DNA sequence: CTGAAAGCGCTTACAG
DNA sequence: CTGAAAGCGCTTACAG
């Protein structure tokens, strides 16, 4: 009599609906409710009870409590994404890809640390205490993976050279780097500078090494004195370029390759201030192909990396592991390739 | 005898260390372990037992299992951030701010939906089933908040007009919008177009309304026929501008205001293609002041919004609620202001 | 100050 | 097909 509110509104707010309440309403045990709620009725629950329970669930607005469920099962439905830096548009895309592949069955928990730094053993413990269904680890170093020593499902993203630790999805940045070297060489550049990222992530070493090798093979000189590095930050990069440019210019440098587009934006910005004409006086290129590289003036030549696909594939692989499937290809590599824009297209291509 | 491995390495990997194991080692009950692990020993545990337990915890590498803990307490240590779109550099900064204020005590769970869409009742239930310690909701609509009807701690971000639902942190976008109108008026513009976002988020309505009002007050005409809208996407915006420009030009439009910098990038891009000189032929401005707005050529005039502070403040407020404190100021508003750059700085300022 | 015990909500052998 | 019961790991009155 005191339940004057319409039943459509699933229970009064605040009062948690439990399996016991559903069981009582449907006239069955909580075991049966659990079976129905989890779709494990196959040959274990009568049609009659299935529909009773379904109705009770609908009427009460019951949702399986994931804390209780996780405790009983031993794992939660949480997938943890460990990443060193998310204030990066590239990373936003990776996340979007992960979300897409994970779907509604898993919740994505972000474990972020200071830009460029990696979680310590402490943080890891706290994460593992959540009993995640799986782990996605972006751009880790070996030390971190040693620390981790988890036995659960795990997939690495952008972790070249660490394939021994877990199934991985990597980017073939070397390919794009070589294309870039070839492009600059064929445009007539003979002396090139390299603006690297200070982050010790493996991908940056590969970008640089592949570029330097191909450049050397094509007769392009990248003097060690013309290789500098800064944090991934427009301002820091602009400053570093401003400081280095006079020497570079004097040494006959006509192009600068940046480890990320973000670095390149700094160069573009400072070049404008300093009156350096791009691309005629200096060609500039980056990696990542962020959305704004198509918009800057001139457009920024950049090695395109499939961020969303990286996240998508990693999520798919992880799902496979969580569901206990054998992965057909534990190691995936996604292509990269150079997008040429105005920042390297000289009128005087050789 | 069979434990030949060094004890420093906290237990053998894979074997979960429980409070019972710690209790056994320290020669106390699990109740005491719990008290020590949670720092609730004040007048309840002897110094002696405290140090025994601490030592056992260290030796075994015990970490409180958060699933068990959450079930017993009734809430988890998870803070859920509900947001309509994260593939947006603006949002990456908001997240960084949230992380900073939340610290190590809480885990940040991202609940993302399709760009521009909001979670349905279904998704909400699944989130609430995690028993979050608190909710952070970015740019919600009233319908969503009605659905939510949660009683737990919740803080809204960028939710102007919805202060009745929960403590909020908002951005004073109207202020920047008015500054922008004043700036364009004083630069001599008399006919201006407006490129809006199709997302029905309140902030966009406020940006537009405030701009239109101030423009009108200053004798600047924004013909309804010159107000169009697209998704927040460089390409979509570029296309829309390409289609609209001939008419705008004919009608004497000399400036276009974009609801976001992302829209503005599309305009800049297309303007270059179409040979429209910026700012002389057309002035362009946006909102958000994304990092690349300082770098584009010309630099993009934009209303700066403090993204990181938005996340930071919201996180702080939420912590307050979770800890049961009364908020001194349940409603916070952060300033916005116009940053003038080359895209609106005509040589011929009146 | 301390520990035995109940309970959080669920899942899963197990016996019927 | 069904339900009583044990158990997941922890926290918190409660009695001592």
From TrEMBL, chains A, B:
Domain HTH lacI-type: 17-73
GO function terms (MF aspect): DNA-binding transcription factor activity; transcription cis-regulatory region binding
One matching Pfam family: LacI
Matches recorded under PROSITE patterns: HTH_LACI_2
SUPFAM superfamilies to which the protein is assigned, alphabetical: lambda repressor-like DNA-binding domains (SSF47413), Periplasmic binding protein-like I (SSF53822)
Protein keywords: DNA-binding, Transcription, Transcription regulation
Alphabetized InterPro entries for the sequence: HTH_LacI, LacI/GalR-like_sensor, Lambda_DNA-bd_dom_sf, Peripla_BP_I
Name of this protein: DNA-binding transcriptional regulator, LacI/PurR family
Organism, scientific name: Crystallibacter crystallopoietes
């Amino acid at each position: 009599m005191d339940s004057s509110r319409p039943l459509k509104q699933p229970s009064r707010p605040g009062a948690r609906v439990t399996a016991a309440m559903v069981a009582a309403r449907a006239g069955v045990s909580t075991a049966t409710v659990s079976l129905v709620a989890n779709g494990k009725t196959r040959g274990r629950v009568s049609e009659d009870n299935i529909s009773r329970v379904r109705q009770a669930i609908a009427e009460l607005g019951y949702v399986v409590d994931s804390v209780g469920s996780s405790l009983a099962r031993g794992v939660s439905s949480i997938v943890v994404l460990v990443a060193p830096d998310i204030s990066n548009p590239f990373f936003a895309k990776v996340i979007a890809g992960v979300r897409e592949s994970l779907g509604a069955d898993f919740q994505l928990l972000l474990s972020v640390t200071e830009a460029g730094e990696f979680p310590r053993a402490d943080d890891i413990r706290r994460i593992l205490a959540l009993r995640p269904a799986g782990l996605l680890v972006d751009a880790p170093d070996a030390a971190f993976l040693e620390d981790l020593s988890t036995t659960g499902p795990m997939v690495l993203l952008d972790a070249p050279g660490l394939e021994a630790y877990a199934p991985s999805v990597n980017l073939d940045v070397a390919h794009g780097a070589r294309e870039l070297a070839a492009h600059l060489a064929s445009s007539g550049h003979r002396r090139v500078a390299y603006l690297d990222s200070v982050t010790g992530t493996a991908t940056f070493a590969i970008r640089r090494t592949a570029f330097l090798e191909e450049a050397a093979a094509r007769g392009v000189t990248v003097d060690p004195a013309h290789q500098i590095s800064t944090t991934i930050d427009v301002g820091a990069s602009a400053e570093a370029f401003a400081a280095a440019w006079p020497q570079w210019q004097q040494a006959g440098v006509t192009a600068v390759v940046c480890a990320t587009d973000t670095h390149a934006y700094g160069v573009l910005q400072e070049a404008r201030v300093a009156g350096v004409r791009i691309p005629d006086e200096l060609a500039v290129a980056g990696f990542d192909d962020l959305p704004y590289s198509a918009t800057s003036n001139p457009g920024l030549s950049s090695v395109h990396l499939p961020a969303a696909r990286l996240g998508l594939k990693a999520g798919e692989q992880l799902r496979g592991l969580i569901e206990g499937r054998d992965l057909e290809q534990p190691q995936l590599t996604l292509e990269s390739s150079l997008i040429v824009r105005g920042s390297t297209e000289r009128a005087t291509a050789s």
